[in-house]
Amino acid sequence: IKLAVLVSGNGSNFQAIIDAIEAGRIPNTRVACLISNKSEAFALERARKHNVKTIVLDHKAYPNRQAYDTALVELLRQHEVDLVILAGFMRLLSPIMIDAFPNAIMNIHPALLPAFPGLDAQQQAFDYGVRYTGCTVHFVDKGTDTGPIILQSVVPVLGSDTIESLTQRIHGEEHRTYVEAVRLFCAGRLKVEGRKVIINE
Ligand code: GRF
């Protein structure tokens, strides 16, 4: 299975996935390329350290989202990518990307969807006063954070939490949860039926 990981920044989720692959926990799988829309993303350094091919695809070099996504699809096809992993990729995808990879684009969101979609989900949950939040791995469809849910992990909000401590605990769960979702996909165990993701034995 060939993965492409799309990032804009830090890339700790990418790190967790590459570590899992190197440890043999996701068999028959490799990261064909790491694509960043930002040349200064720290994730690029992480990729170089693990001999993963890096590509910077700067959105500012394209007139609009359609043109950018067309270039992205072409790159992904060139690399014969089976699964596209969004890991802190701070751009919305147009139907050009979604239609090119149906149920083959994954995203991680730092809240329990459908609660708190969009930006600053940890802050939204913290400000709302929920007792539990967490993270969600889902397939990407044409909406924002609306696609079929693959896995979720719950993180309790403690009385002593600040937004920083809460964000950090969610991040830890993200790494574990994303690796597990990718492992299931790569083992051929995920099937999408309507809104539901079936996890086969
Ligand atoms: C994570 O919080 C993820 O939920 C969100 O973007 C962040 C990426 O973190 N989509 P990192 O770059 O993987 O450290």
Kindly describe this structure.
GO terms for molecular function: phosphoribosylglycinamide formyltransferase activity. Catalyzes the transfer of a formyl group from 10-formyltetrahydrofolate to 5-phospho-ribosyl-glycinamide (GAR), producing 5-phospho-ribosyl-N-formylglycinamide (FGAR) and tetrahydrofolate. The active site is at 109 (proton donor). This is Phosphoribosylglycinamide formyltransferase. Its EC number is 2.1.2.2. By secondary structure, the chain is of the alpha/beta class. It folds into 2 domains: 1-101, Rossmann fold (3-Layer(aba) Sandwich); 108-140 and 150-201, Rossmann fold (3-Layer(aba) Sandwich). 35% of the residues lie in helices and 24% in strands. The protein has 6 helices and 9 strands, in the order βαβαβαβαβαββαββ. It has helices spanning 12-22, 42-49, 65-78, 95-100, 121-128, 163-186, and strands at 2-7, 30-36, 54-56, 83-86, 105-109, 132-139, 149-156, 190-193, 196-199. The strands form 2 sheets. The chain has a 7-stranded mixed β-sheet with strand order 3-2-1-4-5-6-7. Strand 1, helix 1 (12-22) and strand 2 form a beta-alpha-beta unit. Helix 1 (12-22) crosses helix 6 (163-186). The longest helix has 24 residues, at 163-186. The radius of gyration is 16 Å and the shape is globular. The model has no long low-confidence stretch (mean pLDDT 98). Bound molecules: 5-O-phosphono-beta-D-ribofuranosylamine. Residues 9-13, 87-88, 108-110, 171, 174 line the site of 5-O-phosphono-beta-D-ribofuranosylamine.
Helix and strand topology:
Elements: E1 2-7, H1 12-22, E2 30-36, H2 42-49, E3 54-56, H3 65-78, E4 83-86, H4 95-100, E5 105-109, H5 121-128, E6 132-139, E7 149-156, H6 163-186, E8 190-193, E9 196-199
Parallel strand pairs: 1-2, 1-4, 2-3, 4-5
Antiparallel strand pairs: 5-6, 6-7, 8-9
5-O-phosphono-beta-D-ribofuranosylamine binds at residues 9-13, 87-88, 108-110, 171, 174.
